[in-house]
């Protein structure tokens, strides 16, 4: 300021301290306005137009997250601070106030610029297959939280004129309170790192967690919550740390394998199970799927019975349930939508009051839900329709129609007249 007064005095212009202060503030404000106009009206507008017309994705992402705009504001604060140091006496009250405001401005927009940079990195990373499924959002949110705390401490120390080390040392006494306040973000940050390091969950995975009513695709993995879009299009929000502390089912392995399991059983009425008669064998041997089996088994059984030289109940004979199980196995092996390189079997489960369960255990060659359900329905449509050919019956509880039939049929309609 003294240099400015001397400069005016050389030209014969007498000014006092107040006039020189107003002139300096006018220069600082004018410079700030000119710099703002150049940066925001000329430079940034030209960059935004180029980014909009460019095919480069990174230019568009930078523009959307206002990275350069926030850097420009930070640069304006730096210029104001340099002008104060240049024109004003460093110990003057005006200089202290303006420099403090400028430094707070610089720290604020430095933090916002860092946030924008992290957003740019995140949006670019999800475009690549390697990083698109990692829970990076939660980690980035954690970094943002830590950065905001550090910058907040620096800003407070600047306002009170104390060293940041004093504030940081004072935080030790408030550790319990801070742990309570930031419990969810801290647990979420730890959980996000564990999920990423152990490859437990990715965006797009099919997650099933009955405790929270979640059964659908993961759409967002944040610092404190994970969002799941259920198959009925409802949204379930799960605490991130619960994915580490509780059990959940991730169906991504099924999707990656390319085959989805069919594991369903039908209950056979045990009263319909019996040995095959020669007439039934002749009828079933016409089936292309059963002919090799029946011919081989007939030779094996005849040889065994002849060697035992025994008649009656000790003789070996084919059963309709066993032949039916072999038919289902061959039917699945010849089905074009069933994978042959994965487990495929038809087995009997423990019989109970609902009959004898016969379970189909196989894998389809698709993981698409609609196609999977269509294949499964087609298989069981055929099973329910073909079972009568083996003289077997499906077990089911009696209906009203069954009761009326057992009592002699439906009621007769009254005669007219």
TrEMBL record:
<keyword id="KW-1133">Transmembrane helix</keyword>
<dbReference type="Pfam" id="PF21082">
    <property type="entry name" value="MS_channel_3rd"/>
</dbReference>
<keyword id="KW-0812">Transmembrane</keyword>
<feature type="transmembrane region" description="Helical">
    <location>
        <begin position="166"/>
        <end position="193"/>
    </location>
</feature>
<dbReference type="GO" id="GO:0008381">
    <property type="term" value="F:mechanosensitive monoatomic ion channel activity"/>
</dbReference>
<dbReference type="InterPro" id="IPR011066">
    <property type="entry name" value="MscS_channel_C_sf"/>
</dbReference>
<comment type="similarity">
    <text>Belongs to the MscS (TC 1.A.23) family.</text>
</comment>
<dbReference type="InterPro" id="IPR023408">
    <property type="entry name" value="MscS_beta-dom_sf"/>
</dbReference>
<dbReference type="InterPro" id="IPR049278">
    <property type="entry name" value="MS_channel_C"/>
</dbReference>
<dbReference type="InterPro" id="IPR010920">
    <property type="entry name" value="LSM_dom_sf"/>
</dbReference>
<keyword id="KW-0472">Membrane</keyword>
<feature type="domain" description="Mechanosensitive ion channel MscS C-terminal">
    <location>
        <begin position="328"/>
        <end position="394"/>
    </location>
</feature>
<feature type="transmembrane region" description="Helical">
    <location>
        <begin position="143"/>
        <end position="160"/>
    </location>
</feature>
<protein>
    <recommendedName>
        <fullName>Mechanosensing system component YbdG</fullName>
    </recommendedName>
</protein>
<keyword id="KW-1003">Cell membrane</keyword>
<dbReference type="GO" id="GO:0071470">
    <property type="term" value="P:cellular response to osmotic stress"/>
</dbReference>
<feature type="domain" description="Mechanosensitive ion channel MscS">
    <location>
        <begin position="184"/>
        <end position="252"/>
    </location>
</feature>
<feature type="transmembrane region" description="Helical">
    <location>
        <begin position="71"/>
        <end position="89"/>
    </location>
</feature>
<dbReference type="InterPro" id="IPR030192">
    <property type="entry name" value="YbdG"/>
</dbReference>
<dbReference type="GO" id="GO:0005886">
    <property type="term" value="C:plasma membrane"/>
</dbReference>
<keyword id="KW-0997">Cell inner membrane</keyword>
<keyword id="KW-0346">Stress response</keyword>
<feature type="transmembrane region" description="Helical">
    <location>
        <begin position="95"/>
        <end position="122"/>
    </location>
</feature>
<feature type="transmembrane region" description="Helical">
    <location>
        <begin position="20"/>
        <end position="39"/>
    </location>
</feature>
<dbReference type="InterPro" id="IPR006685">
    <property type="entry name" value="MscS_channel_2nd"/>
</dbReference>
<dbReference type="Pfam" id="PF00924">
    <property type="entry name" value="MS_channel_2nd"/>
</dbReference>
